[in-house]
Write a structure and sequence with these properties.
- This protein has 105 residues and is α+β, with helices and mostly antiparallel strands.
- It has 2 domains: 36 residues; 60 residues, Roll (SH3 type barrels).
- 42% of the residues lie in helices and 25% in strands.
- The chain has a 5-stranded antiparallel sheet with strand order 4-3-2-1-5, with helices on one face.
- A hairpin with a 2-residue loop joins strand 2 and strand 3.
- The chain starts with 8 loop residues before the first helix and ends in a 5-residue tail after the last helix.
C-alpha cells in the first residue's frame, strides 16, 4: 500500500509570510515615510512660519526654543506649544487663499 506524501511544513507558513509582507508594504513603509517627513518639517521650523496646531490654532512662529515653540496668534497674544503640537506649516499660496475668503453673513 503506497503512503501519502507528507506536506512540506514550509508550505504551511507561506500564506502567513505573504500576509506579513503585504502588511509591511501597505502599512509600515508609508507610516515610516510619513514620520520621516514630519520629523524633517519640525526640524526646519523657523521664526515667521505660519502654522496650524493639532488643536486647530493658527499662528505665526515667533520663537523656537528646543522642543517648544512660541506662536503669535494676534497682536497681543503669544502662546507656547510643544513642537509636536504643530501639524502643518502653511504655504504662501494657502495664506493668500485664506485672505481671499469672504465671511458670509
Amino acid at each position: 500500500m503506497p503512503t501519502a506524501a507528507t506536506p512540506n511544513p514550509l508550505m504551511n507558513l507561506l500564506p502567513i509570510l505573504f500576509i506579513v509582507v503585504i502588511f509591511y508594504v501597505v502599512v509600515w513603509m508609508p507610516q515610516r515615510k510619513q514620520m520621516k517627513e514630519r520629523k524633517q518639517m519640525l526640524s526646519e521650523l523657523k521664526k515667521g512660519d505660519a502654522v496650524v496646531t493639532s488643536g486647530g490654532m493658527h499662528g505665526i512662529v515667533s520663537n523656537v526654543r528646543g522642543p517648544l515653540v512660541d506662536l503669535k496668534v494676534n497682536e497681543e497674544t503669544k502662546i507656547t506649544f510643544s513642537k509636536d503640537a504643530i501639524t502643518y506649516i502653511k504655504k504662501p499660496q494657502d495664506i493668500e487663499q485664506e485672505n481671499k475668503v469672504e465671511v458670509v453673513k
